[in-house]
Write a structure and sequence with these properties.
The complex is a heterodimer of chains A (about 150) and B (about 375). Chain A is mostly beta strands. Chain A has two helices and eight strands, in the order H-E-E-E-E-E-E-E-E-H. The longest helix of chain A has 8 residues. Chain A is globular. Chain A starts with about 25 loop residues before the first helix and ends with a helix. Chain B contains 13 helices and eleven strands. Chain B is globular, with a radius of gyration of 19 Å. Classes of the chains: A mainly beta (about 150), B alpha/beta (about 375). The structure holds zinc ion. Zinc ion binds next to loops of chain A.
Chain lengths: ~150, ~375
Amino acid sequence: MPITDTKPRADVADRFVPKASPETRPFWDGTAAGELRIQSCTDCDRPFFYPRSSCPRCGGEALEWITCSGRASLYSYVISQRPAPGFEPPTVIAVVELEEGPRMMTNIVGVPPEPQFLPLDLPLQVTFEQRGDLAIPVFEPSESEVAR
Amino acid sequence: MRDDVVILGAAETEEVGRLPETSTLELHVQSARRALADAGLGLHQIDGIATVSTGGPGPVAVAHALGITPTYVDGTSVGGSSFLFHVRHAVAAIRAGHATAVLITHGESGRSRVGAAPWARQPDSSMAQFEMPYGVLGPPTTFTIPALRFLQETGNTLEHLAEVAVAQRRWSSRNSRAMYRDEVTVDEVLGARMVAWPFTLLMCCLVTDGGGALVVTSREFAEAHGSDLPLVNVAGTGEAATTPMVSQMEDMSTCRQFTLSSQAAFREAGMGPSDIDHLMIYDAFAHVPLYGLEDMGFVGRGESGAFVAEGNTSPGGSLPMNTNGGGLSYTHTGMYGMFAIQESVRQLRGQAEAQVDDVETSLVLGNGGMFMSAATLVLTRG
Ligand SMILES: [Zn+2]
């Protein structure tokens, strides 16, 4: 880097690191193991996100953790030009729909942050970004898409 | 239509915009004094206080700063539409005999941050764990996320988003208190600095300082003790809430709480969209009025963009909307709902700068958080 280049560089280490709460701990244990784990209700057989102690659909408290396939599709997004700590814009801030049904906010990585590469419903695959003690789930276009 | 509870007093701070010499608490106090003067009431006649309880001084501090000892207190804090909730709750309290005259105040040093609480969230909260890690920086990068899905599902276009901003500048160009007053074109809106594609700066709300206050009381009390200004009936109200996180919206192409709160308000007022002369829709960003028009039934699904583009919401149009210039061009302290109510009251009283002819009915749709909560007021003249 030339010495005249004083532009601050984004450093992933500066990105916000959340803290697990007791009821979300299994989710974060999952991401640390390279898995996306969400809860499912054994009464109505519906998976849901975010982690909590009862089913948002039927109120059932008999819940189990399931491991997702990691496959998802692009539901909606913006391409942020605002410099968040640790991010060098443009940043794709998206909501993806997991193959199992629930949706979650995330970043889309591994693709140029431009609209023509980001059609809605684009097939995606989860990957994890290590941040502090936590592995943060982010998504990239699925391999079959990259191969096209 | 009920006409037993009225808005007797309504006023904003002397100025809105950049007020670096005025603290958050003082914005509440100043707007409260002006609303009391407008109502023709003294402090001793107020027995109820309402304002948001988080991120500001809260109802107890505001009442104490003014010298009021309230026996009805509402601190409902559900984002920028909280003041519409306060009106609804005040109506119920007055009908129940729990209060006689309720003062609802808003003050926010959104731009200058004088005496304002810092924005903070616990790192183990749901939002911190499941939204904040992704480089979101407040409303411009989160409230905006549903828009692309909305456009795709409804057939509305990017140009339609820009048309909302264009229409509102037509109104603010007629309003000397508005912060942005130069008319703009669709090309200028689309070509403005990009904030979060597809949103340019001109599709995003302002950040300002200011305040406003209302006095809500019974018609009987208003006629016996109040000023001679025209009364505004609170004919119908509604409220609803869905999710604290925008990522968990049930369907990003529609806002369910807009529908629920408006259906309740229409039902109570005994009216429907065709009865409304004037409309205020909380416009934090350019897509929100499009959701509001469709989700409240003013237009069919997918018709909102063309409706705005054809000039229906502009000066001279069939449904004048956001006639102060809205949050996009007039003012937006962070909790805009109070300013939307103020403009409806002005229009019904015939006091607005960009006055519409013969406004008998006005509807205010408030949004709270990022598609989190909503409240609706149907207001009528007299
Ligand atoms: Zn269930």
